[in-house]
Amino acid sequence: VFATVVATPCTAPFMATALGVALTQSVPIAIAIFEMLGLGLALPYLAISFTPGLQRILPKPGAWMETFQQLLAFPMYAATAWLIWVLVQQTGTNGLAAALTGLILIAFATWLHQKTRLLPPLGKHLGSICALVALGFSLSLAQVSTTTPTALTHNQNNGIKWQGYTAQRLVKLRQSGSPVFLNFSASWCITCLVNERVALNQPETIAAFESKKIALLKADWTNRDPAITKALESFGRSGVPLYVLYPPDSEFTQPIILPQILSPEQVQRAIKKL
Question: Which of 90, 138, 226, 270 is surrounded by the fewest CB atoms within 10 Å?
Answer without folding.
Answer: 226
